[in-house]
Amino acid sequence: MSEMDLNRFETLVAAYGATPSRWPEEERDAAEAFARTDPRARALLAEADSIDALLFAHKAAEPSRALHAMVVEAAPRKRRLTGRARLWWSGLGIALAGASGILAGSAATAALEPISANVQMYTHDEVPALDYSADENAESVQ
Amino acid sequence: MIPDDPDGELVRRVGEGDVHAAEALVARKLPRMTALAHRLLGDRTEAEDVAQEVFLRVWKSAAAWKPGAAKFDTWMHRVAFNLCTDRLRKRREVALPETWDAPDPAPLADAEITAEQQSDAVGRALASLAPRQREAIVLTYYQELPNREAAALMGIGVDALESLLARGRRALKARLEETDE
């Protein structure tokens, strides 16, 4: 706790008034202790309190609604897309959707391909003769 | 970001374009800035111009705001204070009439004085103070800045601030007693 005497207390109260919360933090405890214990402090505080009351009788004007609206209107906002930018992004979206459709189609085709890949295609003349020997062997076994 | 800066998070969101954060900052600070300018300039219209200018600077600076030693509120006070002192300087340069900051000679009604009349009387007494005394009182009492912040804003030491406050309070009381008589 800092040192406090009548001289400093008088200066403190003359400058900051009678409310301890307005006194400098580092001197507040010492000043409050002085106020409790020194009878001369009471008159100083009463004098300061009357000036405080005058000061706080003053009410400053509230900001007008028009000012409030203008200030809020000027505030920065997250960017919104302009008409042209929206069109550009829509075009890009459509293009991407088309591209993904093509990719999906290719993927589906690729998935079916193993089945068709095993089917050999022949012209009429090239059709090989059927070999029934395997079936005959099967029957002979029975 | 200063860990105990109560406005730090709000300012960060304002810088990201968050309109709700901007509205919250306006609700928190616009009355404070308007009151500061009103008490320093003694003119509501000019006070609103200053408050608007302060917020235009806030909007421009929010995205790049990198707190150093000062809190955001202190920075706003510095901007507003400088704008006000610039205006006061220009007023002196164009030699405004002497009556600008003179107390209203009309006496107050004694017993039936209303709160509004009393507020007006204190406002006139404040306006009649020497500019540096008025600045010290406004920053310390109405804006509730800690003494070191108020002194730093005014470019003086704490001892000088205390002297201005004490003289300002005495002068204010004397002016109000004069108008009461």
Number of domains of chain B: 2
Please estimate the helix content of chain A.
Answer: 55-70%
* Number of distinct beta strands of chain A: 0
- Broad shape of chain A: elongated
Notes on the protein architecture:
The complex is a heterodimer of chains A (142) and B (181). By secondary structure, chain A is mostly helical. Chain A has a domain at 6-55. Chain A is 65% helix and 0% strand. Chain A contains six helices and no strands. Chain A has helices at 6-16, 25-37, 40-55, 65-73, 83-117, 133-141. The longest helix of chain A is centred in the C-terminal third of the chain and has 35 residues, at 83-117. Chain A starts with 5 loop residues before the first helix and ends with a helix. In chain A, 12% of the residues are buried. Mean pLDDT of chain A is 74; it is low at 111-142. With 181 residues, chain B is an all-alpha fold. Chain B has two domains: 1-96, Rna Polymerase Sigma Factor, Chain: A; 103-181, Arc Repressor Mutant, subunit A (Orthogonal Bundle), CATH 1.10.10. Helices cover 70% and strands 0% of the residues of chain B. Chain B has eight helices and no strands. Chain B has helices spanning 8-15, 19-41, 44-61, 72-93, 115-127, 131-142, 147-154, 158-180. In chain B, helix 1 packs across helix 2 (19-41), helix 2 runs parallel beside helix 4 (72-93) and helix 3 crosses helix 4. Chain B starts with 7 loop residues before the first helix and ends with a helix. Classes of the chains: A mainly alpha (142), B mainly alpha (181). The interface between A and B is large, with 34 and 52 residues.
Q: How would you summarize this macromolecular structure in one to three sentences?
A:
The complex is a heterodimer of chains A (142) and B (181). Chain A has 142 residues and is mainly α.
Task: List the main descriptive attributes of the protein structure presented here.
heterodimer; A: 142 residues; mainly alpha; 6 helices; B: mainly alpha; Rna Polymerase Sigma Factor, Chain: A; Arc Repressor Mutant, subunit A; 8 helices; globular
